[in-house]
Write a structure and sequence with these properties.
The chain has about 70 residues and is an all-alpha fold. It contains three helices and no strands. The protein has one domain. This is DUF3618 domain-containing protein. It comes from Mycobacterium deserti.
Length: about 70
């Protein structure tokens, strides 16, 4: 290992520390339960608003109502 200037070593350590802090902050944000729940909620809402999904859900509701009406006779 080459002899290095103490100022260079300190600068390298400071850069590594800053990078580590950014990485830890990023991981903490990605693992935040509130953010994860919000992301899942947004994904479900985007999925549920697709025309094909809306039509399928409407069809299922109509089918359930028809079956319930037949059973009540």
């Amino acid at each position: 290992m080459a002899d290095r200037d103490p100022d260079t070593i300190k600068r390298d350590i400071d850069q590594a520390r800053d990078q580590l802090a950014l990485t830890v902050d990023s991981l903490a944000e990605r693992a935040n339960p509130r953010r994860i729940a919000d992301d899942v909620k947004s994904g479900v809402l985007r999925f549920a608003q697709k025309p094909a999904v809306i039509a399928s859900l409407a069809g299922a509701v109509v089918l359930i109502l028809v079956v319930r009406g037949i059973r009540r006779r």
